[in-house]
């Protein structure tokens, strides 16, 4: 079996989360700084203490030297310390080598091993004293007293010379004292300082760990929240966002990231919603189409079956059924034409033939085409056009279709003796077209739906049954493609007024021509007179 190498194992041991890495980095940084500072401090202190102890030892050596000199000094000039041939006076030798005296020197004064040399002394030109120990003039006294608290032996050495002492009858003499291995508190003090530093460092490291974890937590929390949101988003929860409170609390870069994520999420959700709504509408549309097709087809089938039976034998009945079939076929044809038209409009495949023509011509010819129908129905159709040309960039054929459909509806829903008035006038955005009738009117509850495909008013009358419910949907599509807007005002029993506002140049306005579906009619119909903003 494959075993991970030491490097791989080390890699496994190192935490991989951003938070742990930040914490580790902070702790490592603090630890490094503390280690460096401690090393420098301890090193400097050690040198300082050693210097101090050396100084103190030298001072004590001098002290010992002077004591020895005092003790050695003769009581009278008749007793010289050093005689010819560097011979030490026996009395002096005895005085300075007494055990109690040496013990006193080593244990009480020097606190170190003491070596005393006494003999002839000279002074160099530089002022250095050279003591030549006389035979028998060297005495040593080891430090025997136990160390006091905090004291320990040190391998230090200090030498002090005393002399040359001159007297009229004697040779100049001197003392050299060497102190070694004294008791000092250096090691203890250093150990105390080191312990103190270590404890402080440990505390600082702990604080760094806690602070590091807190800082890292604060730093990474928004990131974690972001990745959580991304995960949920990826899992299909499209409404999931990074909460605003957490965005505000984060750092600039993370805030930016979170804002961008939320923006992206919103756009995506919107797009997905659009696609879904579209899909639903397509399904609905298909269902509507099938439903609409079934009625004439069922009627045709029934007529055919009846004609095949006994009813077909009688000439009058046959004519009746054939006439009924013709009407149904016409209806099917009308339906197919309108469906084709609507699907072309909605798919955005249809390019408008925009021309800066006089709108009056377009309206006039469309209204004239409805003249015959108006006369047949006994409805007064009037037109009110501006005196001067009203140039608005439009597709004459399509706008003609809008006028035709609106006037057609107005005539269809206006009883004999009624009036339909088509008015065209300039508008601050371009032009306004109004088709007003004195017909049956539309119920307020139905108003929001009349621009939907296949929607037909509920109050059944003959006029209504003849429609396909596609006319206003087509009108709305065409107006949308022209970046225009449409609204309707109506009162049951009094009549309806449809208003279309066309902009001067639709090319400059983002027209939703490519929108594959008719937007919900609720959004585009006002019950009042206000212009309704174009669907978005
Ligand atoms: P249709 O082809 O059935 O007329 P439309 O889309 O043109 O379909 O109209 C939808 C519905 O809006 C109609 O069935 C009718 O109820 C209502 N409607 C449209 N125009 C008028 C009008 N001028 N007066 C009254 N009702 C109208």
Keywords:
single chain; 536 residues; alpha+beta; Helix Hairpins; Heat Shock Protein 90; five-stranded mixed beta sheet; four-stranded antiparallel beta sheet; disordered C terminus; binds adenosine-5'-diphosphate
Q: What is the C-alpha radius of gyration, as a whole number of Å?
A: 58 Å
| Overall tally of structural domains | 3
Through-space gap between termini = 64 Å
User: Strand order across the biggest sheet?
Assistant: 9-10-11-13-12
Count of DSSP H/I helices: 12
Bound small molecules, by name, code or SMILES, are: adenosine-5'-diphosphate
Give the rounded overall mean pLDDT.
85
**Largest sheet at a glance?**
5 strands, mixed
Percent in helix: 40-55%
Give start-end ranges of low-pLDDT stretches: 513-536
Summing up helix and strand content along with how strands pair, one would put the structural category as alpha+beta
Number of E-type strands = 13
H/E element order: HHEEHHEEEEEEHHHHHEHEEHHEE
**How much strand?**
15-25%
């Amino acid at each position: 079996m494959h075993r991970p190498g030491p490097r791989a194992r080390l890699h496994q041991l190192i935490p991989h989360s951003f938070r742990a890495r930040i914490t580790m980095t902070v702790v490592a940084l603090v630890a490094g700084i503390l280690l460096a500072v401690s090393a420098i401090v301890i090193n400097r202190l050690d040198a300082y203490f050693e210097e101090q102890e050396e100084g103190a030892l030298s001072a004590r050596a001098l002290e010992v030297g002077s004591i020895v000199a005092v003790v050695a000094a003769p009581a009278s000039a008749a007793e010289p310390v050093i005689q010819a041939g560097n011979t030490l006076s026996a009395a002096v030798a005895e005085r300075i080598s007494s055990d109690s005296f040496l013990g006193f020197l080593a244990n009480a004064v020097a606190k170190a091993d003491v070596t005393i040399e006494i003999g002839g002394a000279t002074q160099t030109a530089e002022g250095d004293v050279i003591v030549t120990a006389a035979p028998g003039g060297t005495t040593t006294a080891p430090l025997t007293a136990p160390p006091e608290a905090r004291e320990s032996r040190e391998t230090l050495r200090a030498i002090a010379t005393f002399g040359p002492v001159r007297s009229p009858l004697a040779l100049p003499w001197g003392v050299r004292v060497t102190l070694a291995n004294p008791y000092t508190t250096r090691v203890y003090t250093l150990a105390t300082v080191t312990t103190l530093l270590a404890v402080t460092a440990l505390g600082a490291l702990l604080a760094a760990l806690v602070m590091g974890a807190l800082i890292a937590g604060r730093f990474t929390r928004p990131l974690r929240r972001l990745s959580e949101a991304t995960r949920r988003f990826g899992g299909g929860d499209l409404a999931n966002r990074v909460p605003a409170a957490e965005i505000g609390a984060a750092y600039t870069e993370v805030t930016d990231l979170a804002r961008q994520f939320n923006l992206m999420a919103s756009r995506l959700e919107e797009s997905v919603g659009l696609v879904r709504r579209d899909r639903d509408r397509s399904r609905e549309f298909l269902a509507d189409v099938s439903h609409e097709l079934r009625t004439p087809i069922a009627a045709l089938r029934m007529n055919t079956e009846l004609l095949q039976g006994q009813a077909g034998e009688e000439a009058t009945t046959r004519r009746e059924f054939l006439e009924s079939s013709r009407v149904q076929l016409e209806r099917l044809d009308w339906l197919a034409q309108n469906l084709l038209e609507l699907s072309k409009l909605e798919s955005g495949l249809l390019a408008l033939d925009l021309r800066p023509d006089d709108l009056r011509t377009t309206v006039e010819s469309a209204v004239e085409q409805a003249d015959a129908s108006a006369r047949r129905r006994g409805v007064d159709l009037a037109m009110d056009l501006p005196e001067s040309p009203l140039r608005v960039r439009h597709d004459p054929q399509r706008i003609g279709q809008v006028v035709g459909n609106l006037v057609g509806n107005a005539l269809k829903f206006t009883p004999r003796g009624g009036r339909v008035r088509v008015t065209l006038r300039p508008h601050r955005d371009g032009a306004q077209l109004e088709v007003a009738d004195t017909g049956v009117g539309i119920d307020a509850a139905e108003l929001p739906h009349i621009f939907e495909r296949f929607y037909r008013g509920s109050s059944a009358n003959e006029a209504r049954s003849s429609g396909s419910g596609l006319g206003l949907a087509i009108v709305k599509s065409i107006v949308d493609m022209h970046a225009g807007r449409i609204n309707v005002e109506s009162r049951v029993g009094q009549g309806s007024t449809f208003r279309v506002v066309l902009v001067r140049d639709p090319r400059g306005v983002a027209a939703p021509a490519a929108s594959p579906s008719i937007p919900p009619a609720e959004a585009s119909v006002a019950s009042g007179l206000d212009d309704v903003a174009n669907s978005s």
